[in-house]
């Protein structure tokens, strides 16, 4: 048995299940789940149609590199979305079965397991896949706190030069989960300088990039930042994106990686052995999704309306505000986050995720402690009712 499996911690939702195991919610109130970030808006009909039309491809083994038409659709979307020259569809783009599996597998490609002192840096709070990927690749995760006093920026000063010299891979998440923080061009300039100095690879998780609130202010992406800073070769940078949130198709498991062609080539080699080719029908549906923006604009409108209604209600009672992007509210609690979540479920049948479950203790603190993550993924009426219940609960504390 791989001994590194014993290093893995329970997933946040397993911790939540255990936390709530003895809770019986009050009778008479419908359950409202604001704990898990699973998109619940309707999947566009044209994507379902394209999926069914792609079933004829099931008689053939799919290529790990994906259909040329899919890679071209992704490359063209990157060019349109970020206003840059489209990356080369043959060498700088690779379809993946959702960003989650790619974020994990990428570490297995990058990390030199022969170095016992190898580090993987990631934000804190963070997406737990980063930690698991590091541990199972033979590296040690090291955490960069993102705190409200610092505008939820990465604390890059937390690591010494010697520690940065041991970092082989840095995960960033922009827009961030759970804070919604978007990295600025100055942030990217600093990250690229560190990467140049120490030689580590940057994995930019951008799966929330298409959920934002002002059509005139799109979140900056990693490839876009690199292009603006004269790094058109995307050296030591790979971005990860997905259709799950953008197009409301989490069950399709469809995304892509794009960036440094040398890294993409090695990742393709790894995936060829890993058996990670995308289902042909999913590829056909993905082409249709990447080629259409109208449904994405409508999706953002729904989120914008929900946040406009819900944020003021919760902000009257908890320290929170509209995030830069994404579909979470990150709210500070007046009592322990776990106790807040338990009593909210018991008294009002609303589930939220304790922030401490999304973080690890670093520099003597857990930066998720006394925060909750509220996922506004349900329909507007349900989110609004959930917000009202949270506000009423807070008034009684």
Automatic annotation (TrEMBL):
Signal peptide: none annotated. GO terms for molecular function: pyridoxal phosphate binding; succinyldiaminopimelate transaminase activity. The keyword Signal does not apply. InterPro entries: Aminotransferase_I/II_large, DapC_beta/gammaproteobac, LL-DAP_aminotransferase, PyrdxlP-dep_Trfase, PyrdxlP-dep_Trfase_major, PyrdxlP-dep_Trfase_small. Its cofactor is pyridoxal 5'-phosphate. One of its GO terms (biological process) is lysine biosynthetic process via diaminopimelate. Residues 32-390 form the Aminotransferase class I/classII large domain. Its EC number is 2.6.1.17. SUPFAM superfamilies: PLP-dependent transferases (SSF53383). It holds the Pfam family Aminotran_1_2. It comes from the Bacteria. The keyword Transferase applies. Keywords: Aminotransferase, Transferase. NCBIfam families: DapC_gpp. This is N-succinyl-L,L-diaminopimelate aminotransferase alternative. It comes from Georgfuchsia toluolica.
């Amino acid at each position: 048995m791989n001994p590194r499996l014993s290093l893995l911690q329970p997933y946040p939702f397993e911790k939540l299940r255990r936390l709530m195991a003895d809770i019986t919610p009050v009778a008479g109130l419908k359950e409202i789940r604001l704990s898990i970030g699973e998109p619940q808006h309707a999947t566009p009909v044209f994507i379902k149609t394209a999926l069914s039309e792609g079933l004829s491809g099931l008689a053939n083994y799919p290529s790990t590199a994906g259909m040329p038409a899919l890679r071209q659709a992704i490359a063209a979307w990157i060019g349109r979305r970020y206003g840059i020259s489209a990356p080369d569809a043959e060498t700088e783009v690779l379809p993946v079965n959702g960003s989650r599996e790619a974020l994990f597998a990428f570490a297995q490609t990058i990390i030199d397991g022969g170095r016992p002192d190898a580090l993987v840096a990631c934000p804190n709070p963070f997406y737990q896949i980063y930690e698991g990927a590091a541990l199972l690749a033979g590296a040690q995760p090291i955490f960069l706190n993102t705190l409200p006093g610092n505008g939820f920026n990465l604390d890059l000063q937390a690591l010494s030069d010697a520690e940065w010299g041991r970092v082989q891979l840095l995960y960033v998440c922009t827009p961030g989960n759970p804070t919604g923080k978007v990295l600025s061009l100055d942030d990217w300039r600093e990250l690229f300088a560190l990467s140049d100095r120490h030689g580590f690879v940057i994995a930019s998780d951008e799966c929330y990039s298409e959920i934002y609130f002002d059509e005139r202010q799109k979140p900056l992406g990693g490839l876009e930042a690199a292009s603006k800073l004269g790094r058109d070769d995307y050296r030591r940078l790979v971005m990860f994106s997905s259709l799950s949130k953008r197009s409301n198709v989490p069950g399709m498991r469809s995304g892509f990686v794009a960036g440094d062609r040398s890294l993409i080539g090695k990742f393709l080699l790894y995936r060829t052995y890993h058996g990670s080719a995308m289902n042909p029908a999913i590829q056909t549906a993905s082409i249709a999704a990447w080629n259409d923006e109208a449904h994405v604009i409508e999706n953002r409108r729904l989120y914008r309306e929900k946040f406009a209604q819900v944020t003021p209600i919760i902000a009257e009672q908890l320290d929170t505000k509209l995030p830069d992007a994404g579909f979470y509210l990150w709210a500070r609690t007046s009592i322990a986050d776990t106790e807040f979540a338990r009593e909210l479920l018991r008294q009002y049948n609303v589930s939220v995720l304790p922030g401490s479950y999304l973080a690890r203790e670093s520099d003597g603190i857990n930066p998720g402690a006394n925060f909750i993550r509220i996922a506004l993924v349900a329909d507007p009426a349900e989110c609004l009712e959930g917000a009202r219940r949270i506000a009423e609960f807070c008034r009684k504390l």
